[in-house]
Every structure is written in C-alpha cells, then in structure tokens.
Amino acid sequence: MSEFLQSLIRGLGSGSIYALLALGFVIIYKSTRVISFAQPAFMLAGAVLVSYLAAEVGFFVAVPVAAVLIAALALGVERTVLRPMIGKPVFVVAIITIGVDVVVRVVTNAFIGLDVRQVGDPWGLSTVSLLGVDVQQRYLVMLGTTVVVVAVLFAFFRFSRIGLAMRAVAYDQEVALAQGISVGSVFALSWAIAGGLAALAGVFVATGAGVDQQLWVIALKALPAIILGGLDSLGGAVVGGLAVGVVESLVGTYQGDVAPWLGPNFALVAPYVLMLIVLLVRPYGLFGSKEVERL
Amino acid sequence: MKGRPELYTSYAQDTAFLNTRPKRAWTGVLVVVALLMPFAITDDLLMLLATGFVAAIGAIGLNIVTGYAGQVSLGHAFFLAIGAYTGAALSGDPDGRVLGFGVTSLPVWLLASGLVAALAGLVVAPIAVRLRGLYLAIVTLGLVFLGEHIFREWTSLTGGPGVGRPAAVPELFGVRLDRPSELFTGPQQLYLLMFVLLVIFGVLARNLVRSRIGRAFAAVRDRDLAAAVIGVDLTRYKALAFAVSSFYAGVAGSLLFVVNGFFDPGSFGLLLSVQYIAMVLIGGAGTISGAIMGALFITLLPRITRELPAVLPFISADATGAVTVFQVEAVLYGLLIVVFLIVEPRGLFGIWVRVRNYWRTWPFSY
C-alpha cells in the first residue's frame, strides 16, 4: 500500500509539471488556435535562467524573476515571429513554432554546456513522512504550487477584465474585436502566460535532478496530456496532466511485475498509449468541445 | 495543333504527365545529367546524392498524405523505421547476431518493406481518419515515440540502441550492388540504383495524384466536408492516403541505410520526422518535384554547413567551440523552415515557378 501511495504522489508531483505545461499549450491554443511547439524551449530556458540567477539572489527570488523574464521572451517571440503569421494555416504556424523551439533551444544549450547545472532548490531529494509514507518533499511542493497557480489562473480568467477579454477572444475573435478588445494583446498575453508557466515547470523538472540538455524532452509529455483533456479545455489540461503523471508513475512501479514483456522504460511511452485509447473512444479528448462544421 | 504547342484541345492533354514542351525537354536534360553524374563527381558526393534520392522517395510519400490529402503526419519516422527493419530483417544473414531470413533479392524485400509499412499505415488509419488537424499531428507524433520504444526494446531485431544492425543487402539478380564490379565502383552502382528507383516511384506518384484518386485527395485537403458532400468517401480516401504514404515511407526506409550499411534504433526519432516535414515544406507542399528538391536540399545541407568553418572562422568544426557546425545546422533547419513559410510558402517549387514565369514571357515580364 505504501508503495502504491508513494507512486501515486510521485505521479501527482510530476503530473503537476505536465499540467503546468499543458495549461500553457491550451491557453495559447484557445486564444490563437495554434499549438505552440516552442514550449519545451521556454521550459529549458526557464530552468537554465534559474540555475544562473539562484546563485546570485537565492532560489525563491530567482524563480519568479525567471518566470517573468521567460514570459517577456515568449511575448517577444510572439510579437516578432508569430504576429506576422496571423491568418496563415494553423499547421504552418505550428511548424514555425517548431523552428522557434529549435533556435531557442540551441542558444540555451550553449549556456548549459556539457555538465549538469543545479537550480539551487532547497529540497533536493530529501523526504518527509506523510501518514506513515515517505515521500519526497519536492513532489509535495510541485503539487502545492500547481494547485495555487491553477487557482490563481482560473480566478484570473473568471473574475478579471483581461481574463474576460481572453475568454471572449477564445470564443470568437472577430466578435471580440468588434467589442473593442485588442486581440493582438490577448495573443501576446497568452504567450507570456504560457512562457511563465513553462519556466515554472522547467524549474520543477530540474529540482532534484538538475538541468541538462535533454530536459526539454519532458515537455513533450504535455502533448498527450492536452490531447487527453481536450485541446481547448483548461480543466482538461490539468486533469490530463495529472492523469499522465499518475499513469506514468504507476506503470513504472507495477509494469515490471505485471507485464515485463513490454520492456523496461515502457512507463515513458505509457501516456501515449493512454492517449490513443482515449482518442479511440472520444476523438476530441475527455473535455474538448466537438468541432461544429458547416459548409 | 502544329506550331501551337500550348493549345490544349482535350482534358487528357491538359493533365498529361508532361504537359508542356519545356517540361519534356528539361526533364530529359535532368535525367541525362543525373545519369552522367557518376562519371563526373567523387564517390562520397555520389553516396550523399544517393541518400538524397532515397529521402526523396520518403518525402514524396509524406507529400502524398500531407501535401495532397492534407492530413498532417508527424509519424513518418515510424513508418520509415518499419520499412528499414523489414528490409534489413528479410535480407539479413540467417546465422547472424540479429534476426535475418536471408532473402537478399532487392525487389522482394523492397516491396515487402513497402507492404508491411502500408499495413501499419492501415492499422493506424482507423484512429487517424477520425481526427483532424492538430489532434492528428500529435497522435502521429505519439506513434514516433511508441515506435522508438518498441525498436529500442526489441533487440533481437534491431540490435539495441548504440549497437544497431546491418542494413538491407542490395542484391539484384545475384549481383551485390554495394560492392565494386568490373565497370563501376560500389557508390556509383548504388547511386544509379537509387536514381532509377526514384524515377520509378516519382512517376508512380505523379500518375497517382493526377488520377481520380489524386483529385479526391486534393478535395479532402481543401475542404473535407465539401468533399464528402460531392461523394468522396472520406474514411476510404484518408485511409488510402495513409497507406500509400506509408508504402513510400517503407520503401524509402528500407533503402535509407543501404548506403551506409548500418543503422541503430536511435535514428528514428522526432528529428527524422521533422526533417521530412522540412523537406516537404521547403520543397513545396503538394508537388512531386518539390518533394524531390526539398529532399536533396535537406540531405545536402549538413555537407554545406560542414564547409562553413572554412569561410566563417568563428564557427568551430568540432563539438567544443562556442559556435559549432552542429548548432549552426540545427538552427538552420529551424530558420529555413520559418523563412520559407513566411517568404515563399510554395517552397523551392514556388521559386522555380517564379523563375519559369519570368523567362516564359521575357523580355516582357512585368
């Protein structure tokens, strides 16, 4: 039982990383109708930035500063690269974000070098006893922070004027424009929010293990999460992210005993299998809205 | 219609394989130049070009599903891998370290690789035809990760990561084409083989897309709902596009490593899929010749960047300096895709069309 609980909490912890990333994807998708494949690069850049800043100003100052800086970077990318592409086919824009991702990642890699960099987090791999189960502190921190961030985000979308504007743009861009909402700034803001969330996620990934050049691969796990939850559902992104984390962790714990023929490391691809199964039943994910078509 | 070559009097004329005289002439010139190439350039360049021809077959395949039928697939690497392992396993040494059946005849394993990959495409099709746009892109991306896992773990077939296995054996009528014969060196023979295969598969693809099926693909791409209304069976044609594309991928995959002779399961990652997407987009989506141009361009790109340190001294040739060729190469992929999509969305083919139109009406081209 304690093995199960440990695995569950580990899954929820890493799942909250995926949830943060997935939220970024979904926020950008909702406002601009484009999937930004640049999220992995922003995540990596955030973690690297913290690893430099933490030595100067301490971890807890470094994280928000880095999140803001990466948000500014994402905003700049949107303004210079993506804004001229408005109106182009979504697939073309998505491919362009892959290009952005590669460029940002290569530049960031130059700051990592070949060694593993530490982000200077105070938790490391130390554990705490919770209801008689030893769990790593960092997973609890991840889960807690994510709950707070998600709550703030939902409140922002629900209660603030800008949040309302963003929801209006997500609903119908032309109508929003006619109401006097600056659709362009909503695009920029959604990129900035996504960038900040990615930076935060990057720091969490780097706690315990450190930053290396392969860190960005983690961000791709958010893709099954958003498909699982539905591309245009914020709640779906959170649920999808947590589900992916838990499935990955549980499969990692038990698959070796139950189905060893699937090979070691099957846990890493288990989210994709989950995604395929869900899509067979629900082509628009669990909470995604079905596309209404007319000629 | 003597003396009026551009006057079409029938639909068949308009959609003919090479419908204008300049097209016929230039295609002829290109084929002759390509056939004379082995006698003009060195063997290592020939091997590169041969790889480029194989990549072109794969890119044509991706172009059929993405460029013509409009179904964005990031899963091309998965189907390339299936082809590569089918070909390698069929022609492999039966007593070797990895799985092999000893069927070394090239046409046999080539077709088998294509068919197995096409079958895999058909298996995926039921999921793929229900999805559209970005959902489809991400699901096909998932295929790549699943494939990577399978091929990493199935060591009796693939040799395992970092070890790899020998590629398919190119034997035609009892002659090993990768070994020098009396007339040609190995690379020269492989070059000619790949060229002939590219011509065959290019002509097949061109004929497919200008047929009823190709028009159905284009209708699905432009507006699938409208296509369904005029009687195009969406499920059937989407599945068909996936199957044909996977067939091409399988064929290309089985040939892809013949030139090098060795490959490991790490070769079939996301990067390979992105490279093929880049070939299609840089070459020009929805054109066969564009796919070939794009494939050759992307294949030759590393070679070009390797020459950069000689010109730009701040780029270092090995992996240690501040700016290395490998980084430049990776950035170039990204930048080229972005630049092409913004400046010339029709790709290299579009540039060619503009050049052609300029000279067609020269000196009154304004």
Short overview:
The complex is a heterodimer of chains A (295) and B (366). By secondary structure, chain A is an all-alpha fold. Chain A has helices at 2-32, 39-57, 59-82, 90-112, 137-159, 161-171, 173-178, 183-206, 222-229, 234-258, 266-281, and strands spanning 127-130, 133-136.
Q: What is the count of helical runs of chain B?
A: 15
Low-confidence region ranges of chain B: none
Which band does the percent of strand residues of chain A land in?
A: under 5%
- What structural class results from the helix and strand content of chain A? mainly alpha
Sheet of most strands of chain B: 2 strands, antiparallel
Helix percent of chain B reads 55-70%
Cα shape of chain A: globular
Q: How are the strands of the largest sheet of chain B arranged?
A: 1-4
Helix/strand structural class of chain B? mainly alpha
What is the end-to-end distance of chain A?
55 Å
N-to-C SSE string of chain A, H for helix and E for strand? HHHHEEHHHHHHH
Beta-strand proportion of chain B: under 5%
* Main β-sheet description of chain A: 2 strands, antiparallel
For the secondary structure, the number of strands of chain A is 2
Q: Into which percent range does the helicity of residues of chain A fall?
A: over 70%
Instruction: Give the largest interface pair and sizes.
Output: A-B, 47 and 43 residues
Q: Strands across the major sheet of chain A, in which order?
A: 1-2
Give the SSE order of chain B as H and E letters.
HHHHHHHEEEHHHHEHHEEHH
Look at the structure and give the mean pLDDT of chain A.
Answer: 86
Oligomer status: heterodimer
Instruction: Kindly report how far apart the N and C termini of chain B lie.
Output: 29 Å
